[in-house]
Amino acid sequence: MTPDSTLDRSRTRANDILVRVLVPLARCLLRVGVDYQAFNECAKVAFVRGASEEERLAGRVPSVGAVSLLTGLTRVQTSGLLKGGQGDHAAAAIGSSAVELAADIVHFWQHDPDFMCSQKKPKPLPFSAPFPSFCDLVKRYAKGVPAEAIAQELVGLDAVHRRSDGWMIFKKGFFVPADHRDRLLLSLDRSVRCLLETLAYNTNPTRAGDGRIERLVYSRSLTEEQVEALRPVIRETIEKFSADMDRRIGDDETTRAGFFNDPILDTHIAVGVFYAQDSPPNRRSKDVVADLANSSGASAG
């Protein structure tokens, strides 16, 4: 087998896998109103940023020529994207969403000693005064965001109870955004992106030292009955593990609570666990394409 034929086979396999990865992503994006044209523009930004990072990892300063060659974009397109920093506003909008800020408030309410009682439980907090208040909590971990907006978000998520006298009572540490768009964007940013960052790090050919742990337990030979019996066990195990990790990570965070969101001192980490299952009946994309072809043929006849 020649080197060229090996490369062609690798590209074909990569393209096949890419389509499989993009199909569920496309479904998610369509649900939040992102069509192909918008995705295409974002993809250009992503490829330019990705190529620039690859150049830096190789010890080179990214240039228009090198990035253009890697991405297949024209030099004019590459130059404009390198200078324009396109996509920063969109990323900032997702990063500062009300739901994500609310998640930060819930997290630190459980871990910052200033806002916890002697039993290491979140304190009931007056809304504005005296210290410690809910406004103090928001000021520390969502600086610049109105506390009232965060309060309304948390009450709407049923994570906090607001008494008639204004006191804020913590209810639960985990919540699922009610709006499917908020849930989807939060998951894309905090789960999918983090997993892909880990994959990019682990497959860096110039990386030194250990990789970041990445594990997948997989089966394709279980009956529907066996799956149904396993699902509650898996859920219980994952929920316990997540709560334990949240506590462990949060215990370390409290030693430097005053430095939250300091770009120099903060190192962002994430530990994620998920459950995946093909939806029955398992109709692959090729079956859908076949159906479309058959219906097109029938209508043409």
Key terms for this structure?
mainly alpha, 301 residues, two-stranded antiparallel sheet
Give me a quick take on this structure.
The chain has about 300 residues and is mostly helical. It has eleven helices and two strands.
**CATH fold naming of one domain:** Arc Repressor Mutant, subunit A
Q: Helices and strands, in N-to-C order?
A: HHHHHHHHEEHHH
**Share in β-strands:** under 5%
Q: What does the average pLDDT come to?
A: 86
The CATH architecture of one domain: Orthogonal Bundle
In DSSP terms (H or I, runs of 4 or more residues), the helix count works out at 11
Q: What is the SS-derived class?
A: mainly alpha
Q: How is the biggest beta sheet arranged?
A: 2 strands, antiparallel
Helix content: 55-70%
- Give the overall shape: globular
| Cα radius of gyration in angstroms | 24 Å
Cross-sheet strand order for the largest sheet: 1-2
Record field, number of beta strands: 2
Distance between the termini: 45 Å
At the first level of CATH, the class of one domain is Mainly Alpha
* Low-pLDDT segments, ≥5 res: 86-95
Explain how this protein is built.
There is one protein chain. The chain is an all-alpha fold. The chain has a domain of 76 residues: Arc Repressor Mutant, subunit A (Orthogonal Bundle), CATH 1.10.10. Helix content is 58%, strand content 2%. A two-stranded antiparallel sheet has the order 1-2. Helix 3 crosses helix 4, helix 6 packs across helix 8 and helix 7 crosses helix 8. The longest helix is centred in the last third of the chain and has 30 residues. It is globular and about 75 Å long.
